Every structure is written in C-alpha cells, then in structure tokens.
Amino acid sequence: MLIKKEICNKLSDKEIIEKSLEDINYFACLYERYEQKLLRYIRKISLADQGEASDILQNAFIKIWKNLNSYDNSLKLSTWLYRIVHNETISFCRKKRSFGKNNELDVNDIRYMNIADEQDSEINSEERFFLTHKVLDQLALKYREVLILKFMEKMSYEEISDVLKIPEGTVAIRINRAKKMFITIADKENISFIG
Question: Is this structure's pTM higher than 0.85?
C-alpha cells in the first residue's frame, strides 16, 4: 500500500522519517519529495544521462533506507540526502573514469546550467546552456560542485559544508576561487554572459 500524495504533503521531513521507520510505505513520501531535486543535482555534477542518473539515485536511496536509523535529526534532512547522493555520484564518476568511458565530453551530454539568473536577450537559453557548461567543465570537480550547490541548488554555506564535509570557511574560499576561475576561463574562451 502506497501512501497518498496528499498525506505525504502534510508531513514534515522529520515526520516522514519517523513514520518510515514504522511503515516502509512512508519511505515513498521521502523519495517523491526529493526525487527531482536529487536527479537534477546528479545530472549537473556528473553529466550522467537520465538512465545513469536514475541508477545513481536508486543506489543512493537504498543507502538512505539502510542508514535511516542512524540519521541525526539535528542535521537538515535535505543536507543528509544530498551528502549520500553526492557520495554515490562521485563513486559513479570514478568508476566511469576508471573504465576509460569519460575521456571526452560529448556536446549532446551537456546539461543546462544557468548560474546567472538574469535573462540576457542576446544569449538564448540554448547558447547559455552550452557556454556555461563549456566553462564549468573546465573547472576541477571541487570548484564545479560548490558553484552548483550554491547557485543552482541554492544552498547556504552551512548546508554545502554539511554535504561536502568541509568547513564553512573552506566552502567560502572554494566559491570565491571558483567564481574567479569561472570568469577567467570565460574570458579566455571569449565567452560573455552579459549583453
């Protein structure tokens, strides 16, 4: 028996965790609530296709279920979930790279990322999609992931710190460096995101 969406929507994250520990059917509420956000995050940091992203998410949710009893409710649930998904995604990337399948970036695999929220009439969304990823793909993972978490997933420094398991000061430094690198790379590539 699956729990109706109306019931899930009325429950807080903490209530869903508590109920899931008593009745596994409530775990579907957690999956439903976070599935799209986590899939989007996976695809942004890994450039995984939809099938690969779904597999990563499935494996992550198995780990989430197995570790549900050890969840520390002093942490924000979304941060804990992102941490597990992050680790699973990094493992996927390492495995893929170790098999030599990730040596080249296929333009068709690039996923849309819009770091700048303002609309630019001279750059359409398809161009922004390509250009943003062209720059982001040149950043080391540790810089790419902080930009994605901060500007796309709209996380606070504290949340990013919890997801990446690094101090908040390191988060701030990485974001600052990543923004500078992003601008430098964009300038070097003669890419402008403003009209």
Answer: no
Q: Is the dihedral of CA 126, 38, 91, 76 positive or negative?
A: positive
- Per DSSP, the residues of 110-173 read --------S--TTS-HHHHHHHHHHHHTTS-HHHHHHHIIIIIS---HHHHHHHHTS-HHHHHH
**What is the C-alpha separation between 134 and 150, in angstroms, rounded?**
19
Tokens of 160: 């990013």
Average pLDDT of the residues in 62-67: 94
Instruction: Give 118's contacts (C-beta < 8 A, 6+ positions apart).
Output: 194
163 φ/ψ angles, rounded to the nearest 5 degrees: -65, -45
Query: What tens digit of pLDDT does each residue of 20-57 get?
Result: 999 999 999 999 999 999 999 998 888 788 899 999 99
Per-residue pLDDT of 155-186, as tens digits, reads: 999 999 999 999 999 999 999 999 999 889 88
User: Which residue carries 């197995």 as its tokens?
Assistant: 66
- Tallying the residues shown for the chain, one arrives at 195
The answer to whether residues 24 and 56 touch, using CB atoms and an 8 Å cutoff, is no
